Amino acid sequence: MTLLTRRQLLGTGLGAAAMGLMAGCATPGTQSVNSAATIPPANGPVKLTYWAWLKDFQKVADIWNAQNPGIQVEVVWIPGGNSGGYQKLYSALAAGGGPDLAQVELRSIPEFLLVNGLVDLSRYGAQEHAHLYDKTLWNQVSYAGGVYGIPQDSGPMALFYQPAVLEAVGGALPRSWDDWAWIGKELRAKDVYIDCFPISDASPFASYAAQAGAVWLRPETDGWVINMTDEATLNTARFFDRAIDDDIVNTAYGAFSPAWFAAAAKGKIASTVTGSWGDALIEGVSGASGKWRVAPMPTWGGDGYGSSYLGGSTAAVLANSKHPKEALEFAVWLTTSKEGIDAEIKNSGIGWSPNPEFIGTDRQKPSAFFGGQRYNEEVFVPATRQQNTEWSWWPVTQQPFNILSDGFRKKAFGTSLVDSVVAAEQQIITVFKNKGLTIRKEAA
């Protein structure tokens, strides 16, 4: 993971006008709160607000509240980030308000930075806590020596599968993606799909490409360099083009949709490659207790990695907070203490813990649902150490993902994933330039 400077983040020539060109959001303004004096701790009781899309999160905050009468936290539920939550946050920032803390995805931190929406928590002592966090995640919130969010959860990837379904074709686990494709062909003879490929959501594809070694955008001193047509990405696209053409994967629905749950319950879906948070969703499959297991993610070989990440969020302190020091204190407790992590898992189904020293009490136990397997320790702990650390998020994230997803939808009408990736790269270059960001294509 590359630590970005603010100059690299913004790109040469990004002025005040460009700061406001955030698609679909209001402009909080161009004066950074981080250029002002730090706000001292309050002398009396403090009430913090935290906007998040996590369910039952007030129950987590109440544990903190009972122990910290001087810093009380009120949780306000908002829709998931791009389902309306970010729009609410941008609008609140533009009006000079908003919560003290908000749930912001790791990949969305740079977009909030572009509108000066976040507090640099290094000014309030965040670096003192860096050793408590997974280094890859900490790097994803670190820019120009500043810290713009506290890692809250992530999604190291693995293979969730049904052993009895695989036994119909010999029971072998796919260790490589080539194995996966071969087993997928065998399963189709049994009217079973090995997995889905969501042509309406490019996020999993990005994770697969990152696992293969891709780095789509990287910062340099004179702006951003894009390369979505490297061999790692194009080989990944070619692989899934073949998988779709050979009818190995189902593109009619995505994982964890109602149709997926119905198919999984009938043994018509053998497996899914997804983030660690998928375990809680798989437990919703009817009659599935004891029928699923977890194995490492299939690998590409060569310069590829053992796993990848899908998802991940932060507890970020927003620019209009009057109590950033206290907000940081709560965020660190939430994401590193045993009480906080256990409460998040129990009440909110949080993703993978950002604290490598504590994955959660329940996640240290054998899982009855997954046949007594200790899959969190056996599979996901190693997966967190097998990531593409060179991958970094860029200052305009959602629009490029929308562009790529729109291209992938054309697969149903004959356009290859490879062609969509190549076309998306050119469109993304235009998006960056329209927002005043300096970008160039990497030389061949």
Provide an overview of this structure.
This protein has 444 residues and is of the alpha/beta class. It has a domain of 175 residues: D-Maltodextrin-Binding Protein, domain 2, CATH 3.40.190. The protein has 17 helices and 14 strands. Strands 1, 2, 3, 6, 11, 12 and 13 form a seven-stranded mixed beta sheet that branches. A three-stranded mixed beta sheet has the order 8-9-14. It has a two-stranded antiparallel ribbon with strand order 4-5. β1, α3 and β2 form a beta-alpha-beta unit. α3 runs antiparallel to α14, α13 packs across α14 and α16 runs antiparallel to α17. The protein is globular and about 70 Å long.
Would you identify the CATH H-level superfamily of the domain at 41-155 and 311-370? Periplasmic binding protein-like II
Task: Give the tally of β-strands.
Answer: 14
- What is the architecture of the domain at 41-155 and 311-370 at the second tier of CATH? 3-Layer(aba) Sandwich
> CATH top level of the domain at 41-155 and 311-370?
Alpha Beta
Structural class: alpha/beta
Q: Could you tell me the mean pLDDT?
A: 92
Q: Biggest sheet, open or closed, and with what strands and sense? A: 7 strands, mixed
**CATH domain fold name of the domain at 41-155 and 311-370:** D-Maltodextrin-Binding Protein, domain 2
Q: Any low-confidence stretches, pLDDT <50, length ≥5?
A: 1-8, 10-30
Q: What percent strand?
A: 15-25%
The number of distinct helices, counting runs of at least 4 residues, comes to 17
Shape assignment: globular
* Helix proportion: 25-40%
Rg measurement, Å: 22 Å
Intertermini distance? 22 Å
